[in-house]
Amino acid sequence: MISPLAHIDPSAKIADNVKIHPFAFIDKDVEIASGCEIFPYASIMRGTRMGSNCRVFQGAIVGAEPQDFRWKGGFTYCHIGNNVTIREHVIINRGIHPDTEGTVIGDDCFIFAKSHIGHDTKVAGHCVLGNGVTVAGDCDIDQCVILSSNAIVHEKSRIGKWTLVKGGCRISGNVPPYIILAHNPAAYFGVNAIVMSKHGFSPDDIDVIAKAYRNIYQSGISVFNALKRIEADIAPCEIRSEITDFIRGNNLRIVALPIDMLD
Questions:
Q1: Which phi-psi region, left, alpha or beta, contains residue 246 (left: φ > 0; alpha: ψ -120 to 50)?
Q2: I want to staple 132 with a disulfide (CB 3.0 to 4.6 A). Which of 40, 150, 171, 201 is the partner?
Q3: What is the pLDDT of residue 258?
Q4: Sheet holding 61-64: strands in order across?
Q5: In which residue ranges of the chain is pLDDT below 50?
């Protein structure tokens, strides 16, 4: 299952039932769990911890050195979950801070060709990153997010769960959960209803989300007052709490709002 034409450092820990094609490169201090497949010319660099049943395609580099001047060469990590697909020429940088978990990609993510994920970024499970997506360092992307092709996510941005960012959109800041963003500058484009309805969200759930975001994005009032109105008009529930907690947890600063509403 391992080609003699692949380079495997003696210190790498390779589980049973791993297929490594010719000319793949496996660095020192790498761990790869069972069922993975590493295609030709893919590189798995030091500090990478890869879960089971992952596929890394031609030219991808997982655990690359961070592109950050603060990194001084210490031993850092890149954690890849289970059932992750990493397509051609993707680059995932490991962290810059020793003794932290570094960059983390959750289970069941699909990362399309030529995407880049910066140091210490956390991508939760079941996310999709389209072709050419660029995510800077220290970002936090929650579960079930879709970043369409050529989307750009700037440093320290946070994206809430079940968000859809349309192709080419630039994100610099905090995107609350369950919405669609489009255009440049980024604009609120409605609730991610079609995707969520296909994955078990009820019409009542989607109605709660739509009511909440009408207050935030379409009422013309400040975010502070929009949250007060949401809590007055919508009965307590998990979805309401996730929206309000995300916004309050980011000091009411969310993208796609005019500056005079960020108060």
A1: alpha
A2: 150
A3: 57
A4: 7-8, 25-26, 43-44, 61-64, 91-93, 116-117, 134-135, 152-153, 170-171
A5: 259-260
